[in-house]
Design goal:
With 490 residues, the protein is an alpha/beta fold. It folds into four domains: 112 residues, Cobalt-precorrin-4 Transmethylase, domain 1, CATH 3.40.1010.10; 122 residues, 2-Layer Sandwich (Methyltransferase, Cobalt-precorrin-4 Transmethylase, Domain 2), CATH 3.30.950; 124 residues, Rossmann fold (3-Layer(aba) Sandwich), CATH 3.40.50; 119 residues, Rossmann fold, CATH 3.40.50. Helix content is 37%, strand content 21%. The strands form five sheets. The chain has a five-stranded parallel β-sheet, with helices on both faces. It has a five-stranded mixed β-sheet with strand order 8-9-12-10-11, sandwiched between helices. Helix 2 packs across helix 3 and helix 10 runs parallel beside helix 12. The longest helix is centred in the last third of the chain and has 16 residues. The protein starts with a strand and ends with a helix.
């Protein structure tokens, strides 16, 4: 039997999109993949190989290093293409060199595929360039968790005397000892320092301070491994260059587009649907009510998608004048070949100015939980208003929402796009026994509401609102948030 080959592959800092093209190709071609400490399970999506979790974690090894070496050799001797997938880069504190030597000694062909190291990527993703003109022209990377009994331990005095940026990897368990060693060796306690937790993960979190207080901050905020310590003047750039994390709570069907919009405005999107759409049966008198209406009003793209599944509604709308609340709703109607008008102001006053004197009978097609302030305002103006609830808004039951609630402290901005996103987020946190923690996180974060009804619901729930756009659209919300961040950074 022909001998196979071993590839020592760097998976990068966590985000699967930061893997190299070659790394991804080899994963798809592999017969066997040995992985440990993978930063995101999505890195293995679509991989058909035999997957073996060798699970190296601090203090918890499913296989020791010698066992991993022997398994690599065994699988390659069986004629397999073997990928040894490692976080970051295989040769930077990844023990890839030991695995390469083991292969060489047994005559197993091997190849190294470099990966993006967290020593550079994690600070970078937190808004900290490890070198910067006028601040740092050198970078020193050390391990913060040395092997016990090592013959030549780190010379902290020499390290403390270096200029530039210092990155300490794998140092959470010995953070206080390492910082004490730096200060004792002559590093100023006022030197800027940061901890970047889970760099490249969706739950990445950054805290900044100085050598004097960063350990206490890390302890109080419960920073956990994997996390790195960054020391040097470049840390001061984090508030300016870092991307704020924004929680997207919209239904699943709007998540991808919303995340793209958020990233365009410079935010890091956390996709966590708080609500889901559950269609309702249409009323038996639907045709009559459509016939009676002079104008039909849609308040969301979700309403358009739900309504236009029904051919009765689709046919009737060809003969009706249609109002779309917001450009996204108008765009959704255009996708079905239907023209619509958009009021200048997305409010009852805006609708009244558009429709008063033009008609008497208006039909709303929207969510059963939709705010009544639009229709109530029109009724007060003497117009006849009918309402057909097309769908219910229910709790999403999405595991991503639970994860968001559990790591709510790492979220910078909560974007509430409806009253139901606010209610369901709080209800789910209560069910998980984490309502108090979520409320504390909301107090420390920026809270954005897409419009008046959402703002009023948040106030009812006891949540402070920091930002409401002039136009009640998600894009306008993001634009207002970006402007707010810019002003605060000055």
């Amino acid at each position: 039997m022909a001998i196979g080959k071993v590839y020592l592959v760097g998976a990068g800092p966590g985000d699967p999109e930061l893997m190299t093209i070659k790394a991804r190709r080899l994963l798809m071609e592999a017969d066997v993949v040995l992985f440990d400490r993978l930063l995101d399970p999505k890195a293995l999506e679509g991989v058909k190989a035999e997957l073996i979790d060798v699970g190296k974690n601090a203090g918890r090894h499913k296989l020791n290093q010698e066992g991993i070496n022997q398994l690599l050799i065994k699988k390659a001797m069986e004629g397999n293409i073997v990928v040894r997938l490692k976080g970051g880069d295989p040769y930077l504190f990844g023990r890839g060199g030991e695995e390469a030597i083991a292969c060489r000694e047994k005559g197993i062909p091997f190849e190294v595929v470099p990966g993006v190291t967290s020593a550079i990527a994690a600070p970078e993703l937190a808004g900290i360039p490890v070198t910067h003109r006028g601040l740092a022209s050198s970078l020193t990377v050390v391990t913060g968790h040395e092997e016990p009994g090592k013959d030549a331990p780190l010379d902290w005095r020499a390290i403390a005397g270096l200029d530039g940026t210092l990155v300490v990897l794998m140092g959470v368990s010995r953070l206080e000892q390492n910082i004490a060693a730096l200060i004792e060796a002559g590093k100023s306690p006022q030197t800027p320092a940061a901890m970047v937790e889970k760099g490249g993960w969706p739950e990445q979190r950054t805290i900044c301070g100085t050598l004097a207080d960063i350990a206490e901050k890390a302890r109080s905020l419960q920073i956990e491994s994997p996390a790195i310590l960054v020391v040097g003047d470049v840390v001061r750039l984090a508030p300016t260059l870092g991307h704020k994390k924004i929680a997207i709570l919209r239904p699943e069907g709007q998540q991808a587009e919303s995340a793209r919009q958020a990233e365009f405005f410079g935010f890091q999107a956390i996709m966590a649907p708080a609500i889901a759409i559950l269609e309702k049966p249409l009323p038996e008198d639907l045709q009559r009510r459509l016939n009676d209406a002079e104008y039909v009003v849609f308040t969301s793209a979700n309403g358009v998608k739900t309504a236009l599944k029904d051919q009765t509604i689709h046919r009737a709308l060809r003969e009706k004048r249609i109002v779309a609340i917001g450009p996204k709703t108008k765009l959704a109607l255009a996708g079905y070949g239907l023209k619509s008008e958009v009021p200048l102001e997305y409010s009852s006053a805006g609708l009244e100015r558009m429709l008063k004197g033009q008609c008497q009978r208006i039909l709303f097609l929207r969510s059963a939980q939709g705010s009544q302030y639009l229709s109530d305002g029109l009724k007060a103006a003497g117009l006849q208003v009918d309402d057909i609830p097309l769908y219910d808004v229910v709790n999403s039951g999405d595991v991503r929402l639970d994860e968001l609630i559990k790591r709510a402290r790492s979220v910078d901005i909560f974007a509430f796009t409806s009253s139901s996103t606010a209610r369901n987020l709080l209800e789910r946190a209560r069910a998980l026994g984490l309502e108090r923690e979520l409320r504390e996180a909301l107090k420390g974060a920026t809270v954005a509401a897409i419009g008046k009804p959402t703002c009023e619901e948040l106030a009812r729930l006891g949540i402070r609102v920091d930002s409401v756009p002039e136009k009640f659209t998600f894009e306008a919300m993001l634009q207002a948030l970006a402007q707010r961040e810019l002003e605060q950074s000055k």
